[in-house]
Amino acid sequence: MPNVARMYDFYLGGKDNFAADREAAARVIEAAPTAPVMAKANRTFLGRAVTFLARHAGISQFLDIGAGLPTRDNVHEVAQRIRPSAEVVYVDNDPIVLAHARALLASNRRTHIVHEDLREPEKVVNAAQAFLDFDRPVAILLVAVLHFVQDREKPYEIVDSLMDAVCPGSYLVISHAERTPQLVEAGRAYDKATARAALRSAAEISEFFDGLDLVGRGVTRLPEWASGQEDGPDTSETVSIYDEAAMRWMPFLGGVGRKPLCDSPLSSEAFVQKPPLSELASFATQLARHREQRMHALFNSRNEARS
Ligand SMILES: C[S@@+](CC[C@H](N)C(=O)[O-])C[C@H]1O[C@@H](n2cnc3c(N)ncnc32)[C@H](O)[C@@H]1O
Q1: How does residue 304 score in pLDDT terms, banded at 50, 70 and 90?
Q2: pLDDT at residue 280 greater than cutoff 90
Q3: How many domains does the chain have?
Q4: Ligand 1 pocket check: which of 93, 115, 142, 256 to mutate, most ligand atoms within 8 Å of Cβ?
Q5: Are residues 148 and 251 in the same domain?
């Protein structure tokens, strides 16, 4: 049976995959030729988000759910380069992923591996609490995994329950493939894999961040998120293979949100502390957009009340 972690390893040019994985991945690539570019963009997004969190948001605890097979620039490597004391809990429901991760990470005392399923968030939180202090901010990473959770499995409730468990000032990182005709076709190759694809629209992906303050430009196409960040991981290899068109339409979105300390998005400490100028500018845009959305909502609800 094709394995989603090993198919992803194949897109990334890894060697931890078998014939069944490669055949299914080839069907994906036939329908969506830029699938390997998207996988690499996803790793770049992950690296940028972790860099932002460790360097600018003061985060030293990471809960990476649906962690995948170890590869280059794993979360603990990026985070601990910036904050050597960072604790990372990797969670996956695939025993193969866990075996690889344990072999690679055995000597890292601040990296922990947990066998749990995202669809049972209470169990994930219980297991993670053995290693992380939930009274201090935690970054929850759901990177390229929610699109394996079907609607009937209640993905929004899962995310809410994870964010309820962490304290204000904690962060949520999500990347998610978008529902386009091309990806729906490609997604069929996952029908007989270890997890089926559950693609969502841009609006549905943004909804995962309801109630959180979005960082920077909000939910964007992956290559756009914090592009131009100077102190991120080495992205030269990834960037060189993007052509402009693939960047512009890439049907893969990502964002970072912060559980607010109070009602206002201005509470975001990362911006109050020492805002990099580029982020301050985009934060101002975000704030304006936030106000505009509230005005629209108010306007619509008044109109509805009248009619
Ligand atoms: C495409 S890989 C993403 C790996 C990594 N997060 C990244 O973005 O580079 C998806 C991973 O999610 C895992 N996964 C899928 N469904 C899961 C679930 N319900 N609970 C935990 N892990 C899951 C798979 O085993 C796989 O390792």
Answers
A1: low
A2: no
A3: 2
A4: 93
A5: yes
Taking Cα atoms as reference points, which of 178, 144, 159 lies closest to residue 257? 159
pTM: 0.85
Q: Give CA 118 to chain center in angstroms.
A: 13
Q: From the CA of 268, how far away is ligand 1's center (Å)?
A: 29
Q: Which CATH number characterizes residue 100's domain?
A: 3.40.50.150
**Dist. CA 8 → ligand 1 center (Å):** 9
Ligand 1 atom at minimal distance to the Cα of residue 64: 6
On the question of pLDDT at 174 being above 50, the answer is: yes
So what's the pLDDT on residue 161?
98
Q: How many residues does this entry show for the chain?
A: 307
> Residues with beta carbon inside 6 Å of ligand 1?
4-5, 8, 42-43, 46, 65-68, 92-94, 97, 117-119, 143-145, 148, 195
Asked whether the predicted pLDDT for residue 271 surpasses 80, the reply is no
pLDDT in tens, 39-91: 999 999 999 999 999 999 999 999 999 999 999 899 999 999 999 999 999 99
The answer to whether position 141 is within a domain reads yes
| CA–CA dist 303, 275 (Å, integer) | 39
SS3 of residue 304 by DSSP:
helix
Ligand 1, atom 23, residue with closest C-alpha: 66
Q: 294: domain range?
A: 275-307
Q: Are residues 48 and 100 in the same domain?
A: yes
Residue 60 CA to chain centroid, in angstroms? 17
Q: Give distance in angstroms: CA of 117 to centre of ligand 1.
A: 10
Ligand 1 atom nearest 117 alpha carbon: 20
For a ligand 1 pocket test, name from 1, 4, 9, 238 the mutation site with the most ligand atoms within 8 angstroms of its C-beta: 4
Question: In which band, very low, low, confident or very high, does the pLDDT at 107 lie, cut at 50, 70 and 90?
Answer: confident
- Residue 291 located in a structural domain: yes
Q: Looking at the domain assignment, is residue 269 inside a domain?
A: no
DSSP characters over 116-166: --TT-HHHHHHHHTTTS-TTS--EEEEES-GGGS-GGG-HHHHHHHHHHHS
